[in-house]
Amino acid sequence: MNVLLIGSGGREHAIAWKLAQSKDLAKLFTAPGNPGTEQCGQNIPIGVNDTDELLKFARQNKVGLVVVGPEDPLAGGLVDAFEAAGIKAFGPSAKAAQLEADKAFAKQLMRSSSVSTAEGRTFDRFSDAKAYIATRDEPVVVKAAGLAMGKGVFVCDDPADGILAAERIMCDKKFGSAGDRIIVEDKLLGEEASILAFVDGRNIYIMESSQDHKPIGDGDTGPNTGGMGAYSPAPVVTDDLMDQITREILVPTVDGMNRSGALYKGILYAGLMITAGGPRVLEFNVRFGDPETQPILMRLKSDLLEVILAVCDGTLDQVKLKCDSMPAVCEVMASGGYPGDYQK
Fold first, then answer.
1. Are residues 181 and 246 in the same domain?
2. 336 assigned to some structural domain
3. Digit-coded pLDDT (tens) for 66-113
4. Residue 110: inside a domain, yes or no?
5. Residue 50, class by beta-carbon neighbours within 10 Å (0-12 exposed, 13-18 middle, 19+ buried)?
6. Looking at the 3D structure of the chain, how many domains does it have?
7. Cα distance between residue 201 and residue 314, in whole Å
8. What DSSP line would sit under 251-282, residue for residue?
9. pLDDT band at 165 (very low <50, low <70, confident <90, very high)
10. Model confidence over 266-277: pLDDT tens digits?
11. Are 293 and 285 in contact, with CB atoms under 8 Å apart?
12. In a domain, 172, yes or no
């Protein structure tokens, strides 16, 4: 089978590396790819959001499966476009991708599905957000509601800093239209964990746990990034805790999405805070995490292409995943100045 992988990051290199090991793979194309993916197949100079050109290339090269890495093309309906063209695509529909693309939608879904998360409010106007934050005397978390490449979250121990964060997002347009709406939440205390699962609309198959570290500085200090490193497994996630996460978070979330008319297929990523009162959701992502994917796929011994096709076909219950018991770690190297402005 010829496979087209969409994306250009370290995550896509890890996915390409694993797909290239499949006995069922004929050719692997990555658009646009990077020097790492070039070692696993052929890079194609087409942007991730250029749907027409991607479709044209897929038809000309007899691509049987498209695997979408980043969130932008998922939210933009790339999976819908390929499925409409009769080509299998791995990832959620644009409607289902709202779970990541619109944090206000995700918050409402969690409320309606009784999924534990931080208390929070949504604001469309800076003046209202400012007035609300000014009444707080506890730490707050301010989030851009739209897609901000993992950098749109500000954890503010002083509510005054929360007002400044809201101003940067809503007035200074630090994240563009992604910051037209913000979420202001209570700060949760505990240890973070990332739980990724394959979902075929009906069945959920959970991967090995992981933990990523977003702050730029040593000791989890400084502004948030897209992720400075990750390891798998996360010791904080015990077998009993994983059962609880499955029962109280993953299952009701998938059920809630399906009830809303957005059949969920692809990867469901739950970013969690393991608090004294149990696991609570910080965020949902609708794709492989970066950098969590790197250590998780390094440990995966099963055929990734086989699992992805099972998700597309709705036969995930017929798959059995095997993982290496040895831990794995990914460390990110970034340009000086990141996540702010830096020389490219």
1. no
2. no
3. 999 999 999 999 999 999 999 999 999 999 999 999 999 999 999 999
4. no
5. middle
6. 3
7. 7
8. HHHHHHHHHTT---EEEEEEEEEEETTEEEEE
9. very high
10. 999 999 999 999
11. no
12. yes
